[in-house]
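Hi everyone,

Forwarding the result from last night's run.
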Amino acid sequence: MGRVESTVTIVFLLYFLAFVRVLSMDLDLVNRLAEVLRLDEGDGPVLELNKAGIEEGKKRLDLCLVGKVIGPRPANKEGIENAMKGIWKLNHRFQVEELSSKNVFRFIFGSREDRQRVYGGRPWTIDKQLICFVKPMGLGEISKMNFDFTSFWISINNVPLACMTELFAREWAERIGKLEDIKLVNGTMKVRVRMNITEPLKRGLRVAVDELGNEVSLLFQYEHLPDFCFDCGIIGHKALDCPLRDFVGDNPRPDRGRYGSWMCAPSSPPRDRVRY
């Protein structure tokens, strides 16, 4: 009798654990399941969305951003709220909701102005990890959001005085990503660029300055740069955690150390928060 009761207990626990796993199904798993699983007529008729409900939902989306923390360390909504409350200093309270165990969160603001202050002030970091923000579009389908891009102000250093023009700033910025803005102030050149963070950071450009083949190295420095790998140059991990880390015997890869802290702008000015 005891053996039967023990077997029943084990079976019950297995069913219970399976049930709990379904309840706690991660959003990423749900999205992957939705890609391969299609409901049909056997599941009932197609329902039309209520237009008034859609309009109300879109108004709420106008107060939201969706952000993904890029890095190996897990983040939590309480930690984000406490950290960013003192940094953003918004006019109204904001809330953070966890959407996925993959460090994806929804940020709900008290006004559109507060939302724009945060979005226009990118990039933001938490615990030196980048928060990549996306404005929800349409109905706000998370599976269609792309967290691979963000914007940085980049100082272009060692520019010859004859090249300190918007024409050259535009040309060089477009080698990095999508140009958003240019600043030429007191002999310095800065460009704001929307760039793909899954690709290595660009260290600079080599520019030919005459017909004899002489060249100048233009060095890039990024404002508010989060953790990145000094070996592969990709944001989101450090060299010790680099998935491309490879050694030949006792010798490191010859291309290791191509990047470094010199790529971080030494002092970052106040953020421009009015950009749309």
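Confidence is low (pLDDT under 50) at residues 6-24.

Cheers,
N.
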